[in-house]
Structures are given as C-alpha cells and as structure tokens.
Request: fold
Amino acid sequence: MSPVSIHRRAALAGIGGGMLAGMMPGTADARAEDWAALGVDVKSEFKWAWDHYVERAWGKDEINPVSGTSQSFLIEGHDLGLSLVEALDTLWIMELDAEFQAGVDWVKANLDFDIDGEAQVFETNIRLVGGLLSAYLACEDPALLAKARDLGDRLMKAFDASPHGLPYRYVNLRTGAVRDPETNLAEIGTYITEFGVLSQLTGDPKYHQAAKRAMMHALNMRSPIGLMAANIHAETGQFISRNASIDVYADSFYEYLWDAWELFGDAELKTAAQECLQAMIDHQGKRYDGLLWFPMVDFETGEVTNTSQTVLGAYLAGLLGQAGFKAEGDDFLATYTTMQERYLIVPESTDVTTARPRTLRTGLRPEVADAALNLWQHDRDDRYRAIAATHYRNMKASSKAAYGYTSLTDISTRPMTQGDNCPGYWWSEQMKYYYLMFAEPKRIDIDRLVLSTEANVLRGFIS
Reply:
C-alpha cells in the first residue's frame, strides 16, 4: 500500500486526537486502577529479581534468568557489574536502602576500569558513567563520582583521537587505543547529559565541550530539508550512508538535544531539537492503513528507503510531546499501542506497510513505557499510565522466569518462547518507568525529573 505523507503539524494535529481516542487502550479502566497497589507490585517484582541476581550473578554484567547463569557484556571475559550499577538509582527510588548500600559497597571495593580490553564507548557511557552519576546524585558518596570521572577520562580518548571530535566506537580502557571509525549519530551524540553533569560536578568543562562539539558537527551537516544521515565516519567527518533514521543508529542523539536544554538551558540545542523533529514530521511521517510511522528516508530527498520500524522508535512519541509536538506524540504512541494490543509484546521490528513483525524475538524493550512516562509527565493523564500498566502486565506474563525476567525468542507462540538473558537496561529502565508512574515515589520530584536515555536520574532527586 502506498504511504500517505504527513507534511504539516496541523495535518497530524487534526487527526491525532481521533487516533488517540480510538486506539489507546485502557482509558476507561484507568479510572478504576489502584495505582499505588500496582506500584507495590512493581517494587516486589524488582526486589524478587534483585535477590536472584545477588544470589546467582553478584558483580556479573548480566544474569541469565532461565538457567541461573551469567554473562559479561561490555568486555568479553571482564565483568563490570553492569546490572548492579544500572540498578542503583532504581533501588534508591524504591527505598531498598540496604540493597542500594550493598551495591555501592561492591562498586567501591571491586569496580576497576584499568582493563586491557575494548569497550564500546556509547554503551559504556550511558550505562556505567550514567549509572555511577545517578547513584552519586542519590547518596553523594564521593567514591562514585571518582569512579565516573575515571571512566569518563578513559572514554575521552575516543573523542581526542578524531580530528573532528567524533568518538570512535571502541576504546581500550587501559591503553586508550581506538577502533572502528565507521560510526553513527547515536554513538557520536549520546554523551552531553552524562558528560555535562560530569563537568558540572567536577568543575572541568572538557567533558561537556567534547560532547557538544560532536553533536554540532553532525547538526551543521543537515540537508536542505533538515535531515541527517544516520551513519558517519569519525576520521573524515562525512556521512557514510543516505538513510535518515529516527530509531536504529540515531535515536538517542535526538533525545539528548532536548535533554541538553532541560538540564543545562542550552537554547541552541533546544532549537536544533525542534527543527529536527519538525523535519521528521514533514519528511518521514508516513501513514500506512491509518497508522503513523517514521520509516527511514533519504536524508536529502525524503524518499522512503526502508520500510522497517523497530520498537526502539517508540521513544519518539515521548520526545515529540516533550518538545511541544503533543498531538504528533500521541498519534505515534497510538501506533505502538495498536501493536501492543495486537501482539501483546511489541515486535522488535515491524514492516510498516503491513504492520506485521519482521522478527519474532524481543529483548525486554522499555521504549513504550518510556514514551508513556514522558507524555504522562506533561499532563498526568491516566491513559498513559494505563498503557504502561498493560506493558508491565504483558511483560510479567510472558518474561518471568525462574530467576528473573528474560528476553523472548518468539512472541507468536502461546506461551511465548523465552530466551535466557536479562539485559542490563531492564534494571535501569522499564521497572523505573513503571514505578515512577504508579507509585509516584517520595524521593523523586516528577516535575523536575530528567532521565538519561538509559533512564538514569540526572535531575529530580528530593534530598
């Protein structure tokens, strides 16, 4: 079926309300929901899973919840307590103070980044630098900030090696040797929140400056229609593809434009965020059978180049709402709630022309709950909580295993076929999103809350 392009905000706004009312599930049920009780349930499930992690994978990167084994993630053969670090601020928010302190004590006694091994710069930043910073902001233990700074300095080698300040994808944490200059928007532009906070807390501007320089390099290469290609070369500084993407290879770049405004008052990046989002609406927003999608397009012509959309793209619904495109955000979220209603678990990748899964596996993805939280923050409308409640209950029904929550290998079977891995982000992201919406915890000021792309709290703790 041929897509219907969306070229003006007004066009989306005019149909957004109707799509929202017709497709968002649970609106009527939201009034009867006991949100506090649901928050208690989320906390109970998180504590249950945490106890299994402590028993079977303490200090390891990730637990395999079916077999009760573990695996490393960032550097093969070297565990850096990834899940532990990612869980810290969630434990704090849930007032699991003994568990939080045990995690902090492990970090102080065992976490050492002087490793002769290559780490992916992007993942290491959002997961470990961000996790350490949010834990520091929670409890103000200076050892956590020192660990974050040490790791930040090691990652800076990847920026310094490029003539354009675009970080290479991998860096050896001990030697500073870099590898893989063929990178992408997400991996060169997802630093300014963590690095900016690191600069604030240490008084050293170099981290923030490096992060913004990389973002501005890409922004200054926007095409006449306002889009950027997703792939870029750290050595030449040039785009190496023609695909503009909202999700794979690009997603968190756009989140961090807006976050730079929220955290640091960076009006230049606020304007860039709004301009980029408007360009997406004008040139990537397409309708297939009434559903709004944002498939990949040629960054100069706007012609569709790929008809897949991943579940990662759901974040955009929340970002659109944050940045003033509320009707468009609601409309795009309606696409994902339709997929949630149809398949219970949103497929990892979908063919936008048919709304059918391109893959049946999924990795405990949090993006629908992320978008619901961002939109709920805007007006506290319980319909967003209802979407998150469905997301939570479907996850609980399909992914709970003997020793925690696991990824799925086939969402089409009944029961769904489980894999055997709990990704580190599960501890930082969706369980926190659920708890923030349902429990409204007393240690968080929802109105001031700013989360990283990994859901680390970088502003909003109540002291």
